[in-house]
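Appendix B, example 12.
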Amino acid sequence: MAGDSEKIHRSGVVAMVGPPNAGKSTLLNRFLGQKIAIVTPRPQTTRNRIAGIITGPDHQIIMLDTPGLHRPRELLNREMVRIALESLHEADVALFLADATAGAGRRLERKRQEYGEYLGRVQCPAVLAINKIDLLRPDELLPLIDWYQSLHPFAAVVPVSALNGDNTDILLQEVIARLPEGPQYYPADLPTDVTERFIVAEIIREKIFLLTREEVPYSTAVLIDSFEEGEQGRPVVIHATIIVERGSQKGIIIGQRGRMLGEIRRSAATEIEHLLDCRVRLRLWVKVKKKWTKNENILRELGM
């Protein structure tokens, strides 16, 4: 047992769950001080579980950014929700992130049963973070806190703005305080356990979300075909395939005279060069795989 003069070191897994577009990826990036998870204004951007490793002098958090919890219909969406809920089984702390702008009154009350079912699966200390408080009037916050506290006995409640950083340091301390004593599992300079190939595929997918409209981003996936590290001074050459469900979507992704695909490539390559700290040659192809979102083999290839 640690003596009074010894500093307790805490470590463990934190499952960050909540509805789509609540800001989980933005919060993870804020905690890490760098971009690991892609962020777009659209809901259901995150498809896979991403672990961010937050290390301090007295703690190490393996924080799991998970897909948004929603009522799924397609196989892809069911897999996304399964990934999020399974993360709760291995968590030492659950961090439920609520969207302060998602409505109040009857609009929010319609979510009572759904949110209650999710929170009913929590078997560990749970911390509630109400995000986007920068977009709320002061008199709107307390009723929102009361409503969420009626769903579950949260160990702590912290209103935050993941975008601006408001109260995120307080939230982190509330999470750390509920972690068990434990060792440092990963090197202090390692921010994530996902591979560079995974992050590169996610960056390309993020640009598709940002540059295309309607259903197109939700019908696309990205596979890295090859990742060739160049010799000293030579660029990394990356070949990637963008999968779509229909020929019309392929036409949109490519664009007139290849302009859209070129914009996706340029925007992604710039960010990938920053990630890898070297020059990059990015080659993109677009392929149609009908109903890929319902194809278990393709979902498995995508790591789901």
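The first strand starts at residue 10 and ends at 17. Residues 196-301 form a domain with the GMP Synthetase; Chain A, domain 3 fold (CATH 3.30.300.20).
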